[in-house]
Design brief:
Elements: E1 9-15, E2 18-24, E3 30-35, H1 36-39, E4 47-51, E5 55-60, H2 62-73, E6 82-84, H3 86-92, H4 99-107, E7 114-115, H5 127-134, H6 139-151, H7 160-179, E8 186-193, E9 196-205, E10 212-218, H8 233-252, E11 261-266, H9 274-285, E12 290-295, E13 309-312, E14 316-317, H10 318-332, E15 336-339, H11 348-353, E16 358-359, E17 361-362, H12 385-403
Parallel strand pairs: 7-14, 10-11, 10-12, 12-16, 13-15
Antiparallel strand pairs: 1-2, 3-5, 3-6, 4-5, 8-9, 9-11, 13-17
Helix pairs in contact: 5-12, 6-8, 7-8, 8-12, 10-12
Length: 408
């Protein structure tokens, strides 16, 4: 791993299958944006660089990041997560900047609770095509893929295992594309994640250049202290294989679409949405238009076998979220209810901050989530394959209805 001197760097020693991580004290700290409700619970030292009514920009070290990850997981009230803006802040402060400009820097991360789509008109148009594909879902594929993912010692964003997991996903999608004669209209590639070793994986289905659809989840897993086994079956192995099965089902269907579909597996979500932040930046630099985003982060845990699909209703696009309810009612035929996850709780926030229509369905309501995430006990035996399959159905409906089949 190549680290700049002014960023956190790690030395990885592989011994007996375990990743032992030693952190050297950096000249500069990691720079984080988070809401006050998260920061005020920190006991580890940090310094406040600037703050406004809602957010704080702080500098802390790797132990502070560990504590923030733990605080994000154990919230009694909805607060949310954090965004790593280290590289953006260092670029911004190469030359001295005034306090007023620092406030403007922070203001760009102050997102509205929700947005709406003034020009979007969502409806059910392709029911026969969607229903045809729902019969082609193979839940055992998901289970097999999840077995492989959880067999990695970890999928840390900074470890060789994390890199290997990304390579495996890329290889799987390329193999499916080749087997289904999609050599000419499926492109699979990495997007590097700056100072983190693990890349994000992007698979574009279709050669069209019009506004596309994004279906994503995150590759990386994490445990306390960044040490030891981290299977990450639910967080977010479940979402990762859900996206893979949506992709496989669409590619094997023979359908072509009017709009491109982007399947994205983000790196370094746990470290502050770093992978998705870079992905969104790359899409913007290349002026790739995106119409709608769905994030699949935690799709496998069904508390008390509750089949409800919960829809995040804060920091999302209201109209797109309402449309998900219609898709669930029409195709998944399970209950749907609203819940919250707070500021920057997953990768959809990177798209949302950039002004795109983003949505996120999840496995359980706030406060009822999988109690084993971020531990060595986040394993497959606690998951519901039926619940995961329902999220595949939703992903397929989302893709077909919004990307629109050409042979309809």
């Amino acid at each position: 791993m190549s680290w700049k001197n002014n960023f956190i760097f790690c030395i990885f020693i592989l011994l007996g299958g375990f990743s032992f991580i030693t952190y050297a004290a950096p000249a500069e700290k990691t720079i984080i944006v988070a809401r006050h409700c998260l920061i005020k619970r920190m006991t580890h030292p940090y310094s406040t660089l600037i703050e406004n009514q809602n957010l704080s920009l702080i500098a802390t070290d790797i132990r502070g990041i560990q504590q923030l990850i733990n605080l994000k997981q154990h919230q009694k009230k909805v607060c949310g997560g954090f965004i790593d803006v280290t590289e953006e802040w260092h670029q911004f402060t190469i030359k001295p900047v005034s306090e007023s400009k620092k406030k403007l820097f922070l203001k760009q991360y102050d997102m509205p609770i929700h947005t709406s789509s003034e020009t979007a008109h969502y409806s059910i148009k392709y029911e026969p095509q969607v229903n045809q594909l729902l019969h082609q879902i193979n839940p055992q594929n998901m289970w097999n893929n999840l077995t492989t993912l959880t067999n990695f010692q970890d999928r840390f964003a900074f470890s060789e295992n994390g890199v290997d997991a990304a390579k495996w996903i890329k290889n799987q999608v390329e193999t499916i594309a080749k087997q289904t004669n999609h050599d000419n209209d499926v492109t699979v590639y990495f997007i590097d994640t700056g100072r983190f070793r693990q890349p994000s994986v992007v698979a574009k289905f279709g050669n069209e250049d019009g506004p596309g659809i994004v279906i994503g989840g995150h590759i990386d897993s994490i445990v306390k202290d960044f040490f030891g086994r981290s299977p990450g079956a639910d967080d977010d192995g479940s979402g990762t294989v859900t996206v893979m099965e949506v992709a496989r089902t669409l590619l094997t269907s023979g359908m072509r679409f009017k709009k491109p579909i982007y399947f994205i597996w983000y790196a370094a979500e746990e470290m502050g949405l770093v992978g998705s932040k870079v992905v969104v930046s790359e899409f913007q630099k290349k002026r790739i238009p995106i119409e709608a985003i769905i994030q699949l982060d935690l799709t496998g845990y069904a508390p008390k076998n509750d089949s409800t699909i919960w829809l995040i209703n804060d920091f999302v696009n209201v109209d797109l979220t309402t449309y998900l309810k219609l898709l669930i009612h029409t195709y998944v035929k399970q209950p749907s209810k609203d819940t919250q996850c707070g500021y920057a709780c997953s990768d959809h926030a990177s798209w949302y901050k950039a002004g795109f229509a983003a949505s996120m369905p999840v496995e359980a309501a706030f406060g009822k989530e999988d109690p084993y995430i971020h531990t060595e006990h986040d394993t497959m035996d606690i998951l519901s394959l039926n619940h995961m399959t329902d999220f595949v159905k939703l992903g397929i409906a989302f893709a077909v209805e919004l990307a629109e089949p050409t042979n309809a």
